[in-house]
Automatic annotation (TrEMBL), chain A:
Keyword Transcription regulation found: no
PANTHER family: ADAPTOR COMPLEXES SMALL SUBUNIT FAMILY
Entry's localization field: Endomembrane system
Record protein name field: AP complex subunit sigma
SUPFAM superfamilies per the UniProt record, alphabetical: SNARE-like
Any one GO BP annotation for this protein: intracellular protein transport
Assigned protein family: Belongs to the adaptor complexes small subunit family.
Residue ranges of every copy of the AP complex mu/sigma subunit domain listed in the record: 3-142
Cleaved signal peptide residues: none
Broad class of where this protein is predominantly found: membrane
Keywords, in A-Z order: Membrane, Protein transport, Transport
Any GO CC annotation of this UniProt entry: endomembrane system
Automatic annotation (TrEMBL), chain B:
Clathrin adaptor alpha/beta/gamma-adaptin appendage Ig-like subdomain domain location: 752-861
Binding site for a 1,2-diacyl-sn-glycero-3-phospho-(1D-myo-inositol-3,4,5-trisphosphate): 7-8, 49, 53-57
Natural source organism: Nyssa sinensis
GO MF annotation terms: clathrin adaptor activity
Cellular location(s): Membrane, Coated pit
Record GO biological process: clathrin-dependent endocytosis; intracellular protein transport
Name of the protein described by the UniProt record: AP-2 complex subunit alpha
Length: 143, 1019
């Protein structure tokens, strides 16, 4: 099915955004996030960007204080996901201008809107930044 | 920093952020939840804006990991809000908080549908996304046609259609019937002509889901995928917005190549050529560049291309290019590339012919096994595990053992399991195997499961030559300080059984053995004590004449434990004490454990279970499946040792016969052999087996299970006695020894199983395994025979002859005359069906192993049902056809008796597996079944076949069957074929192993932790 979840976690391990594409109960989510964050945050810059955990493969990337973690199944191209994270960051950058953790925290809804334009049902739906941002701009204009 | 118009939310987020600890955060969250709950209670006072604000707060709290068990209704109700901002929040929060089974979601179906069929594009998008993310079966049933219409509508803009594509994907997964409609595959192909890359990206995901389910209907999409790939690779008509660091949508390129991997082959030469051109360009044209993003993106494409090339079984030259690339990757410093290099090289192991090139990189891979990054180490371990064969097993296993001492906790269990499996599978000699396992227990005892040491005991018990060696080793380990408890168990067991073989060595007198084992007793747990007691009893039995001092010591221990609180220990103590006073009878009762029946390794099964939990290892798994039967191969080979006379002796020995003979025999072995280390895979010398040779000769098609026959053989030669062995060897002419090799498993059952599925084992004996994999398309079929040599010596004079019946055209590719040790060769066999017939093709197969000539005739599963293709017909189509085929010879009816009783459900399943599609609900009588299928042959066009079964609920052994088709021959053959299936359905394939005689003691509580009994129970 491709992407199972997208997580944004800061280096203190606080979740800043969580979007799941398969249903997990709250307890399962908490456990999973805890385990993954423990595993990934302990890794060094010299280690690779892929971590195997349970049935997932976590592809992750760090931007300043924020970690972007994408859980995929075994049927995904790891590097493509790694660059997809970067595309997401660039898209946020275009919208917020020098995006930082606070932007995502206080504009959680916008982060969600962008992600929703990019991923649907665990599949990539759009990769053009202007297409992704079009609905948000429309709304900004309206308000 | 405030959010547009939602100050309250910003304040809340700030508060949370300023919380010093989790406890304060919880207090703040609880306060907020209380607040929201109160506000929601008098909903009438809430403005849409407030509702929106609270719903966002709920989502925020939920994200923080707190349960939000109210307010779902409010979130859902926002979906029907007239204005975009509220509606959008409603949709997003609903899809985050609820799942498809949530009751509130059902309430929203209508509102969602109204948005989907409405005119507002942005509303359509929101609704499609919600359904795409959490839509369930009810959504699939009520919305699929609308979504399909949006997807294929030319008046719909791309922004809606791309979402419709992924929405449909979800609905298809929830209910595959939504796209199983006529003409859908054509529409799918049309979708791939799309110019808009957003729509194309999501359509490609939809295609991947559809072809992974059933590629047959989507052949027309294949050339379109190749065209898309060409368009992207050549950067034609790709808007700047879809170019990522100069690379035309790497994600779409990857997805397209993924879709192509679901088609088994590409037959059209032009399409194939174009695709290979593109792939070649990707393979050769991807350079390492400075920019990380560009580099990653281009390598994402490159790795996908590698996977596709491997899948397509490209020409050898291209394959070596791939291996060379991967070889480069696994040596680079960049960790991501190295990780993926190792991962893909593991997949590459599936490709024939490249294993040897991969082996050249062994040293490099071992370096990665010591990498500081656990992700990389895991990949390296998997690759080493997959590439291990008899030629490099020693090196690899020793490397794993060495690594074991320093490996981190997380990997030790997997590492020791893998080392144990490799040692078992590829042991060049058995003493090495014992060494490896004992080392494993020594270094990582905590991670060595009972299965592993049970297996050692099993091997040693079944191989006499190994027994003195194993006993010596066990004795050596006992000298070490602080050994692991598992080591105590295995040593005690081995020394109890075999320490008498060491009697003349220093430090190995019964007394010394006893005291060194007994030293460990205070340190072990209650589960080990019973094993030690058995060992004492065995030592006592083997000490002839009895030594009073030792006897008294052991008796004292038994009587001490007679009052033990542990019932197992107590019972053993009581029984052994009583038994040991019975004098000569003790000998019989405590005699050595008989040989274990051969079974598949439980370890391998365990490894498969473990693998399911870790990352993809399909290549390894598949290889492992092909090789599982090798697990016990080593026992089949008799190690070279002393003179043929001794050989005979050891083969002859039946443990349960008489103890006196036993001991003599054992002594003989020890004296002649000294240490047994080198095992030369010598062909088994013709033994007493040839006496039965003519009796068992024409076993070609059916044979009794191997093991019972083997033991029978042993019995015969046992009676003959050892002294004649040499003479017989000299006299027996070589030619007469044919077919003393017994098949493993029931050939008949294997054939029947293969009639219903497309891959599996056709034949197996101790030396060779013949596997089969088949693909069928209409009247054509392609079978691949996998001839696997299970031994460490080559199989020679290999011959395979196909005897096709008149209705099949068959062409077998060249079969090599020699199959190298442990190698597997693949021989494709093309089949064309010319007409309906139940005649079966036969494979006449022969080979020579040492002095054995084996010739078997095997039926090939190219049977009638393979040329059927299930087709579902509606009532409107069925009945006119049924009526028009009015009677004989086109429609035949027969009352079949002696049917194997089965429920209607089972029968429907049987028909489905025979590729006859059962049409539910066509026959109003619930006791009847109606099925339809199409038959393909080169001479006739596709012929529709209809079938009706009327069963009698009172008597399941009889039924009335009516078969109809447009061809009398077909009708007749199909009817007879189905009849055969109904009457002589083979019982569920049974494990070839004979009744495990050792299993009986498990009934008594005494034996429940006895390793012998446990072993028998385990396997």
């Amino acid at each position: 099915m491709g992407i199972r979840f997208v997580l944004m976690v800061n280096k203190q391990g606080q979740t800043r955004l969580a979007q799941y594409y398969e249903y997990l109960t709250l307890e399962e989510r908490r456990a999973l996030e805890g385990e993954i964050v423990r595993k990934c945050l302990a890794r060094t810059e010299q280690q690779c960007s892929f971590v195997e955990h349970r049935n997932y493969k976590i592809v992750y990337r760090r931007y300043a204080s924020l970690f972007f973690l994408v859980g995929v199944d075994n049927d995904e191209n790891e590097l493509a996901i790694l660059e997809f994270i970067h595309l997401l960051v660039e898209t946020m950058d275009r919208h917020f201008g020098n995006v930082c953790e606070l932007d995502i925290m206080f504009h959680l809804e916008k982060a969600h809107f962008m992600l929703e334009e990019m991923v649907m049902n665990g599949c990539i739906v759009e990769t053009s930044k202007s297409n992704i941002l079009a609905p948000i701009q429309l709304m900004d204009k309206a308000s | 920093m405030a959010m547009s118009g939602m100050r309250g939310l910003s304040v809340f987020i700030s508060d949370i952020r300023n919380c010093q600890n989790k406890e304060l955060e919880r207090l703040r969250v609880d306060k907020e939840l209380g607040n929201i709950r109160t506000r929601f209670k008098n909903e009438k006072g809430l403005t849409p804006y407030e509702k929106k604000k609270y719903v966002w707060k709920m989502l925020y709290i939920y994200m923080l990991g707190y349960d939000v068990d109210f307010g779902h209704m409010e979130a859902v109700s926002l979906i029907s809000a007239p204005k975009y901002p509220e509606k959008q929040v409603g949709y997003i929060v609903t899809s985050c908080l609820l799942n498809e089974n949530h009751d509130f979601l059902r309430l929203a179906i209508n509102a969602v549908r109204n948005d989907i069929i409405g005119r507002n594009e942005t509303f359509q998008c929101l609704a499609l996304t919600l359904v795409g993310n959490i839509g369930g079966r009810e959504f699939a049933e009520s919305l699929a046609p609308d979504v399909q219409k949006l997807l294929t509508s030319s008046s719909c803009r791309p922004l809606v259609r791309k979402k419709a594509a992924l929405c449909l994907l979800r609905l298809f997964r929830k209910n595959p019937d939504v796209v199983n409609v006529d003409g859908w595959s054509d529409r799918m192909a049309q979708l791939l002509d799309e110019r808009d890359l957003g729509v194309l990206t999501s359509s490609m995901s939809l295609l991947v889901a559809l072809v992974s389910n059933n590629h047959d209907s989507y052949w027309s999409c294949l050339p379109k995928c190749v065209k898309t790939l060409e368009r992207l690779a050549r950067n034609q008509d790709v808007p700047q917005e879809y170019t990522y660091y100069g690379i035309p949508s790497p994600w779409l390129q990857v997805k397209t190549m993924r879709a192509l991997q679901y088609f088994p082959t590409i037959e059209d030469p032009n399409t194939r050529r174009s695709l290979f051109e593109v792939l070649q360009r990707i393979l050769m044209g991807t350079d390492v560049v400075k920019n990380v993003n560009k580099n990653n993106a281009s390598h994402a494409v490159l790795f996908e291309a590698l996977a596709l090339v491997m899948h397509l079984d490209a020409e050898k030259e291209m394959m070596s290019q791939c291996v060379a690339l991967l070889g480069k990757f696994i040596a680079v410093r960049e960790p991501n590339i190295r990780y993926l290099g190792l991962e893909n090289m593991t997949r590459m192991l599936m490709v024939t012919d490249v294993q040897d090139i991969i082996k050249r990189h062994q040293a490099q891979i071992i370096t990665s096994l010591k990498d500081p990054d656990i992700s990389i180490r895991r990949r390296a371990l998997d690759l080493l595990y997959g590439m291990c064969d008899v030629s490099n097993a020693k090196d690899i296993v020793e490397e794993l053992l060495q690594y074991l001492s320093t490996a981190d906790f997380a990997m030790r269990e997997e590492l020791s399991l893998k080392a144990a499996i490799l040692a078992e599978k590829f042991a060049p000699d058995l003493s090495w195997y014992v060494d490896v396992i004992l080392q494993l227990i020594d270094k990582a005892g905590d991670f060595v499961s009972d299965d592993i040491w049970f297996r050692v005991v099993q091997f040693v018990t079944n191989n006499e030559d190994l027994q003195p060696y194993a006993a010596v080793k066990a004795r050596e380990y006992l000298d070490k300080p602080a050994i692991h408890e598992t080591m105590v168990k295995v040593s005690a067991y081995l020394l109890g059984e075999y320490s008498h073989l060491l009697a003349r060595r220093p430090g190995c007198s019964p007394k010394e053995i006893f005291s060194i084992i007994h030293e460990k007793l205070p340190t072990v747990s209650t589960s080990t004590v019973p094993i030690l007691l058995s060992t004492y009893a065995k030592i006592l039995m083997h000490t002839q004449p009895p030594e009073p001092e030792l006897q008294n010591q052991i008796w004292a221990i038994f009587s001490k434990y007679e009052s033990c609180i542990d019932v197992e220990i107590q019972q053993r103590a009581v029984e052994y004490f009583a038994l040991s006073r019975k004098g000569a009878a003790l000998m019989d009762i405590l005699a050595e454990m008989p040989k274990f029946p051969e079974r598949q390794s439980a370890l391998i099964k365990k490894a498969e279970d473990t693998e399911a939990d870790t990352a993809e290892q399909s290549a390894i798994k598949l290889r492992a499946q092909q090789q599982t039967s090798n697990a016990l191969v080593v026992t089949d080979q008799r190690p070279a040792n002393g003179t043929p006379a001794v050989n005979q002796l050891s083969l002859v020995k039946i443990p349960s016969m008489s103890n006196v003979d036993h001991d003599l025999g054992d002594q003989g072995v020890t004296q002649t052999n000294g240490t047994l280390t080198v095992v030369d895979p010598q062909p088994p010398t013709p033994s007493g087996g040839d006496l039965l040779g003519d009796l068992l000769g024409p076993l070609a098609i059916e044979g009794p299970p191997a093991v019972s026959v083997l033991s029978e053989r042993n019995l015969v030669s046992g009676v003959e006695g050892a002294s004649y062995a040499d003479e017989r060897l000299a006299i027996a002419p070589v030619e007469e020894q044919a077919n003393t090799v017994q098949p493993i498993g029931n050939i008949e059952e294997r054939f029947h199983a293969l009639c219903l599925k497309d891959s599996g084992v056709l034949y197996e004996d101790p030396y060779i395994q013949i596997g089969i994999k088949a693909e069928w398309r209409a009247h054509q079929g392609r079978l691949v025979l996998f001839l696997g040599n299970k031994n460490t010596a080559p199989l020679v004079s290999v011959q395979a002859l196909i005897l096709p019946p008149s209705h099949l055209k068959m062409e077998l590719s060249l079969v090599p005359e020699t199959i190298p040790p442990r190698a597997q060769v693949q021989c494709p066999l093309e089949v064309v069906n010319l007409g309906p017939s139940r005649d079966v093709a036969v494979l006449d197969f022969s080979y020579k192993f040492g002095t054995y000539v084996v010739n078997v005739k095997l039926r090939l599963p190219a049977v009638l049902n393979k040329f059927l293709q299930p087709i579902s017909v509606s009532a409107d189509e069925f009945f006119p056809q049924w009526r028009s085929l009015s009677g004989p010879p086109l429609k035949l009816q027969e009352v079949v008796r002696g049917v194997r009783p089965m429920s209607l459900m089972e029968m429907a399943n049987l028909f489905n597996s025979l590729r006859l599609m059962v049409c539910q609900g066509l026959d109003p009588n619930p006791n009847n079944l109606v099925a339809s299928t199409t038959f393909f042959s080169d001479n006739t066009r596709a012929m529709l076949c209809l079938l009706r079964i009327e069963t009698d609920p009172a008597d399941r052994t009889q039924l009335r069957m009516t078969v109809a088709s447009g061809d009398p021959m077909l009708t007749f053959e199909l009817k007879e074929f189905i009849k055969e299936q109904l009457i002589s359905i083979p019982t569920a394939p049974q494990a070839p192993a004979p009744v495990p005689t050792q299993a009986q003691p498990t009934k008594s509580p005494t034996a429940s932790s006895d390793p012998g009994a446990m072993l028998a129970g385990l396997l």
